Amino acid sequence: MHLKIEKSNNIKEKFLLFPIISILAIFLIKFFYFLRIIKIFPLNAAGDYAHRMLQLFFLSEYGFHSIIPHCFEGFVLLKYYPPLWHFFTLPIYWLVGNIQLSTFISIVLIYILTFLVFFVFGKYLGLSKIKRIAFFAFFFMNPLAIDYVMNIGRIAEFFAWMIFVPFAFLILYYKNKPLDKKFFLLFISLFSLIIIAHPYIVIPSSILIFSLFLVQNSREKIKIALSVIASLIITSFWWIPFLDVSNTATKMALQNEFLTLGSIISFNTISIILLFLALYFYQKQKINKKDWIFFSPILLLALVILSRAIVLIPIINKVSPSAYTFLFLFIALFLFFKTKSFNKNTKKIVIISLLLLPFLCGGLVFLQSKIINYTPSEEAIVNLLPFIEEKFVILDSSEMLPIIPLTNLAIINSNKETLICITALGADNKSYMDAFKQANYNLKNNNCENLISFFNNFEIKEIIAYGEDCNILKSCELYKAKDSQNACLMKID
């Protein structure tokens, strides 16, 4: 592929080559270590994958919105969590037959598909090949995006951003064009996918819809409103049950997140600054009134977040700050790449910033890097999981082990029932969690009578433990069926 170097923005595009190549190298190094996820189940690093993988396993075994009997005495699968990534990855799982490998393949496909979207759709926005590649790298391989995928495991949300990209390109392409049938077909399709991909991305997407709404005539505004309604009807099978759940705790947690010091000195604040700077240089091209109207809702949102008045505004205060960060970054990058000229001093600052960008990104990526690996105690327990034959529980009186991810892996390996597993909104989590904590307390205090009562009440036949906990269970007249280093699989007669 031949890349023509253009000078249309008064900054030679060759200055984009170094940050593109460097950011790609940083990404590949990080991705090399992330390959461990194929063989090592993520228990701590990228821990969200443990929950998404179990949901994928349940989807394959039982189907969408089925009652899952494995924990909490049953819960409805994906009733309170967006299902689109699971639908996307399920055929891959059926094909390869391995949860971890199918998850990894889905991640690779997300990056490939998103790159193709940037490269193909970016052409219609007047971006050169190098700018399209840079846009992709700066947006989808920045430290926050890498953190999402390889440190935290927020794969469902990241998948939603993949769909957001063509949706945003669609809005930006038609902001100065008449809306035709092709637009409404793509709009309804993409917005419907976003709704069931992740609710956090619905609000940033809706901001763009409102921006487009403002610059259209009355007839087109009605068509846009009807298209939104059509998307809501199409996806009502998921979002109506989803709204049943009480979200007070989530709302308070997100409100508090906006009020912490970490949210002020953050990627979110940086993205807002970049947005203001990009718009400042973009508007020096004497943009028309329509453009000002289009970008005004995004600017207003940025000011509301910057002032922290967002905590007082319903709905938008329920979205994670990182979702707005991606929105601001996307628009800032679009404006930057569409700016045709900079003055001499600004040009120098931009060039220096581009040359320093890889060093900043590299520092942020590797300073917050997490390696997927097992501790000795985790590895010992993992070795016992294939031997589970009946309803089980993993106990840990020290409360140091990642019990829920270990339990999720145990279910995937054995397909056996347990007491607690992935947090299942809508299930009676609290009573089971309290019972589980009490069992660990009784184990710590060597209270055999209460432990046996706990096992009998919940019909638990097998217990996995580690270290001294194994000796305590043995003193409670349980017998050891299998051991691995200091871990044990105990059974009840």
User: Reading side by side through the largest sheet, how are the strands ordered?
Assistant: 3-4-6-5
Count of distinct strands: 6
Treating each run of at least 4 consecutive H or I residues as one helix, how many helices?
A: 22
Binned strand content: under 5%
Query: What gross morphology would you assign?
Result: elongated
Q: Could you say which structural class the secondary elements and strand pairing correspond to?
A: mainly alpha
Unreliable segments (pLDDT under 50, ≥5 consecutive)? 5-9, 246-253
**In which range does the helix fraction lie?**
55-70%
Major beta sheet summary: 4 strands, mixed
| Termini gap | 68 Å
Write a compact overview of the structure shown.
This protein is mainly α and 493 residues long. Helix content is 65%, strand content 5%.
Question: Would you mind describing this structure in some detail?
Answer:
- 65% of the residues lie in helices and 5% in strands.
- It has 493 residues and is mainly alpha-helical.
- It has two domains: 14-40 and 80-367, no CATH class; 376-491.
- The strands form two sheets. Strands 3-4-6-5 form a four-stranded mixed sheet, sandwiched between helices. It has a two-stranded antiparallel ribbon with strand order 1-2.
- A hairpin with a 6-residue loop joins strand 1 (67-68) and strand 2 (75-76).
- Helix 2 (48-62) runs parallel beside helix 19 (403-414) and helix 7 runs parallel beside helix 9 (199-214).
- The radius of gyration is 25 Å and the shape is elongated.
